[in-house]
Amino acid sequence: MFEQIDQKKALLDASRPLPKYTLSSLREKLLLEWTYNTNAIEGNTLTINETKIVLEGITVGGKTMREHLEVINHRDAIFYVEEIVQNKEPFSEWQIKNLHRLVLKGIDDEYAGVYRDQQVFISGAKHRPPAPFLIKDQMEQLINWYEQEAKQMHPVTRGAMLHAIFVGIHPFIDGNGRTSRLLLNLELMKEGYPPVVIKVENRLKYYEALDKAHTQKDYDDFIQLVANEAEDSLDLYLSTI
């Protein structure tokens, strides 16, 4: 599954460092597309051009304050991911809570970075997230899995499974999807991969693959979906060489 990805990643690594302004424009492009798509998956109605305008500090008429905050918050969360990668900080539960706090800042401050105390359901999914009293234990298990089993995995598999396991636990009242996609890219970026963008047009396939992972413990479809998006991002970077 990863032969082409590994070849393209090696080619990209051999071409580094990329020119300063090329790298800057790639980062800006992916930041916009990542922010637009991750919010659109969750129902944000801002178009990609409107998202760009909000990132530039301009208010879009007819859109809610929440939709504006989702854009600004996601940008700040990406900056935090970049900071973690740059500082080579080890993965931790504290980081997850900080990421989530940024995602929900000003939207729901009471639950930002705080595990849920209520049962929730995922619309359209067969999977039912665990009861609130199980969350702390399951999150500890996730960290243990990351520190042991996950270390032996290909970075794409590790990132995809981190995303899938986390969102299956659904530890927060809201913002789990955005946080899970930030965790996916945190893992990939640590290994020198460009961030992947789960595209809104793939939303149905994305949700079906996640539900299969949660109900059947079969992660193959989801890993393949992430691998396809990872290859797209690598192709974008390689197109500049």
Walkthrough of the structure:
With 241 residues, this protein is mostly helical. It has a single domain (3-238), classed as Fido-like domain (Fic-like fold, Orthogonal Bundle), CATH 1.10.3290. 63% of the residues lie in helices and 0% in strands. The chain has ten helices and no strands. The chain has helices spanning 3-14, 20-41, 48-55, 65-87, 93-104, 135-147, 155-169, 176-190, 203-216, 220-238. Helix 4 (65-87) runs parallel beside helix 8. The longest helix is centred in the first third of the chain and has 23 residues, at 65-87. The model has no long low-confidence stretch (mean pLDDT 97). ATP binds at residues 174-181, 206-207. It holds the Pfam family Fic. Keywords: ATP-binding, Nucleotide-binding.
Distance between the termini: 24 Å
Largest sheet: none
Number of domains: 1
The structure class reads mainly alpha
* Count of DSSP strands: 0
Radius of gyration: 17 Å
**Annotation field: number of helices:** 10
Active site: 170
Organism: Heyndrickxia sporothermodurans
Domain Fido: 91-228
GO molecular function, one term: ATP binding
